[in-house]
Amino acid sequence: MSLARTERMLYAGCRLASICSGLIVLFIGFFLFKESLPLLLKINPMRFLNDPGWHPTEGQFGLFPMFAGSLLITVGAMIVAAPLGIILAVFCRFFAPRKIANAYQALLSVLSGIPSVVFGLWGLVVLAPIIRHVQPPGVSLLAGVLVLAVMILPTIALSANAAMTSVPFEYLQGAAALGFSKWQRVWGVAIPAARPGIVTGMILGAGRAIGETMVVLMVCGNVVQVPDSVFDPVRTLTANIALEMSYALSDHRAALFVSGLMLLFVVMGFVAISESIRAKVIEK
Amino acid sequence: MILVAASSNLTNKIKQGLILSLSIYLGGMSFAARNAHADPSESQLVLTGSSTVAPLAAEIAHHFEKMHRQVRVDVQTGGSSRGIADARRGLADIGMVSRHLKPAEEHLWEFPIAYDGITLIVHKSNPVDGLSNNEVREIYQGRINNWKMLGGRDAPITVVNKAAGHSTLELFTDYFHLKQQEIRASVIIGDNAQGIKTVAGNPDAIAYVSIGAAAYDSGQGLPIKLLPVDQVSPTLFNLQSGKFPILRPLNLVTLEVPEGWVKKFIQFARSPEMKSIIQEQYFVPRPD
Amino acid sequence: MLCTGVAVGVGLFFFWLIGDIFLKGAPGITWEFLWDEPENAGRKGGIAPVLVSTAAILLVTLGTAVPIGFGTAVFLAEFSQGKTTLGRMVRRALDVLASVPSIIFGLFGNAVFSHWMGLGFSILSGGLTLACMVLPILIRTIEAGLRAVPLSTRLSAAALGLSRVAVLRDLIFPAAVPSLAAGLLLGLGRALSETAALIFTSGYVSRMPESLLDSGRSLSVHIYDLAMNVPGGDTHAYASAWVLIVLLFSINGLTALCLDHWGKTRMRGL
Amino acid sequence: MNKGKPKLNQYSIETQKLNLFYGKTPVLKEVNLQIKRGLVTSIIGPSGSGKTSFLTVLNRLTDLIPAARVDGSVFVNGENLFAPDVDTIQLRRRVGMIFQKPVPFPFSIQKNMVLPLREHGMKDRRQQAERVETVLRDVGLWEEVKDRLSHSAGLLSGGQQQRLCIARALALKPEILLMDEPCSALDPISTAAIESLIQSLKGRYTIVIVTHNLAQARRISDETAFFWNVEGIGQLVESAPTEILFEAPADPLTKAYVHGIRG
Hints:
The structure holds 4 protein chains of 4 kinds.
Chain B: H1 2-27, H2 30-33, H3 40-43, E1 44-49, H4 53-67, E2 72-77, H5 80-89, E3 94-97, E4 109-123, H6 133-141, E5 158-162, H7 167-175, E6 187-189, H8 192-200, E7 205-210, H9 211-219, E8 224-226, H10 236-240, E9 247-254, H11 260-269, H12 275-280, E10 284-285
Parallel strand pairs in B: 1-2, 1-3, 5-6, 5-7
Antiparallel strand pairs in B: 3-9, 4-7, 4-8, 4-9, 4-10
Chain C: H1 2-25, H2 31-35, E1 38-39, E2 44-45, H3 48-80, H4 85-98, H5 102-116, H6 123-147, H7 151-159, H8 164-193, H9 196-199, H10 219-229, H11 234-269
Chain D: E1 11-22, E2 25-36, E3 40-44, H1 51-58, E4 68-76, E5 79-80, H2 88-94, E6 95-98, H3 109-119, H4 125-138, H5 142-145, H6 158-170, E7 176-180, H7 188-201, E8 206-210, H8 214-220, E9 223-230, E10 233-241, H9 242-247, H10 252-258
Parallel strand pairs in D: 3-8, 3-9, 6-7, 7-8
Antiparallel strand pairs in D: 1-2, 1-4, 4-5, 9-10
Helix pairs in contact in D: 4-6, 6-7
């Protein structure tokens, strides 16, 4: 009977632990909302998009430029990293000798483990001055896009590679039997067959890019504006929080939590999209 | 509103539960056990706030700790607003504020320890040696956007501005009659040091920072140049005589009438022995 | 040809990046650098208190996350098998949690641990915040290890009249030890790389912490501060980055070893 | 469980109107079967006729399958298997089970043998060693492994592993031994060894063995039960002494099956 009690206790303990871990995400949502609430009740939520600027101490809460900044950086990083990532995966899978491919993958996984603050340091000290020589001030949308692209490239390349590895060999063999050239086999068969995996990897990368804080905080200049060119500085939702959180008060602080909520919604959107893709693949 | 009240009631209960379980958990941690003296607030002072005051406060704290071994003084930056907020909420024992208290803040106790000015800095290699108040305005409004227009090199101006909430920003905009909304900046910075670092690394940048911080770093050999404001050079003499136009007090603020270590620290910071330290940091001591 | 060209180009770029950090960082690495307190805002001196704070933060993180994570993993893998409503909901919640950006954890930690619970800017706040952050990865890895014990083993153990507790203790936990270690190391790596969630939870006082309620600056925050806020701090920023990366690489190497060992023992077992 | 000795009757296991469902899908329907004490009973029938499912009911391994549901009644030594006060752990000690694929635990031979003993309260090392030796001799494994008890059980051959699993079950002194195609993953020599082992255990244990191999059923069993798959649901067609079932089955379906016409 004491055995059964031990089992019951173990069960109860594990159950409690999993309730705790399940509740964290609800807690996060709840607290973001709770801290935003005073401001949400006070002003029309549309003002977060419509206010002409971000001057939270003077009652202007326009988050739109930051929202645009986040999206632009993410889209930009994707435009740079996605083709490169796919090409690298194709290289590793189809063109490189096995040893080189393995070494390359090892290099990619090493890179995916480098912390973002180190990328930020590199961007600030090496990349931004180079861009400044072309067009000041150097810390800019472009710097952010490039550093983020480098950062998410390994994620995209590795998941594209994994997706292509799981394409059944018979497909490629069949295509070869039909007299397809290597290029046609890669672009016509392997990549379309691996598309769900590639897209999931890209969304993963995009999620990482939009949630990234340190890099954009360090290399983007943090000016609140919708940029006219890639050389203009921008501020993202994440950088906005990191920059002002430590001293923000009352409404200002609440506004930062609103931008946190906004960010959370965007990321949840990404998750939902990738889930629906995965569900579709499983359906097939 | 009922909803809010109910939820806060609930959250209080959750909070108590969490704090209870957390403290039990903490009890088990040996690391915490090391610090099991009776009342930690007796021997730890937390100062938060203005990034201008912070280096000075840290230096004073250093000397204070040498005299009182049982006290530990932690200094954290975050802007004057945070100094006020943390002092109000009791997160800090002492807030550091680099401006006068506003009317809404007058329930706090204010203790000036020194004075500081704000000036414009550019890179050492920049040929421009002085700007009129109007030129500064137009630079920050984006109407002057190339050093050529001011007789300098043909290079676009990198305008460095401070993030909202810093008193340096408020003083600057007040003095130059700028509105925060009309400032067209290229880089936004938090701490003074970040502004100095940006200018030191960018020959075409302009920023406004605490004179104390800028003069200190310039003395350390950083390639920056302090510009006069309204033709008054940011020298110690001009600051002391009150001739320099943008002057502000560096305050320590507390919620209650200072007692115990807090009182001792503030007295120490305002004592004549600290004058040399204040001057080493290129700040202006209080007149006797 | 295009592929090879791009691959070579990107590869060179990566070597430049890694080389830049290693070459600029390595000269700064001395015993004094690791042993001393930072002076002059970190431009001179060393990083000893930063390393101690980092270790303390990680200790709190793992000390909190491992029991909860282990319990959850056991629940999901052994008691719920993903079939109970609670199990499904928890799994779903963890999937969502895994994708929450770190800055949001920072906001959450600031609101809950620093303010609501009154822990202020402290190692404890930072560690607890990171614990929430590393939970999903920890749970996933441990759960995978637990699930790798085949059904046949469970059934035959049950057929021998072994109690569930005995099955867990004697069969499943030993088999899951490498995955537990791997999960621990993965979580450690993630926590070590994190900056944004710490800036306003553990703060950035760079002095030797004396208790968990002191503010402590982690290595990554130190790099950030030196790079952003300290004129002339780049040299030491690079040296600190060097230390951080070497730590992370060691952790990754250990993880690979664990998983490798795991694979081998599995095979030997059958 | 210990409220006086239950009255022993002729049957070791008796099922009445046993139905088994996985979720809503019925797997076994209305099985009424009596298994005699001390004999070897084999269960034959095509795939999907519920033979293995039937075995798992007999020691309540069905409890581990979340969606499984049993109704009807099963008596083991006259006691209701699904009575609320049944201790499944004790039950499974008394009703041992051997699986199709040998499942040694991933540690040493010694620990494989000792772990269940310790769990069932035998803490004394000398007693343990004695018991281990006895059962390993019973299954004919002792001479082969006595010098390497500390080696990993995974290193044994398939046949040795299966005999180890049988020994592990026998060490608990069960009354009934359920065997789910114990030879199907083994080579002919190992199969012969297991078959003669089963023969030698006859009388001391009640053995229920599921097998696909009709010849094997004929060789080793005293009684045989024939299951058939009716529209995906397993049913008992008939049971009889082995000789009768093979030579003069009552049901034409049985006749067809044992003569290899259907299935």
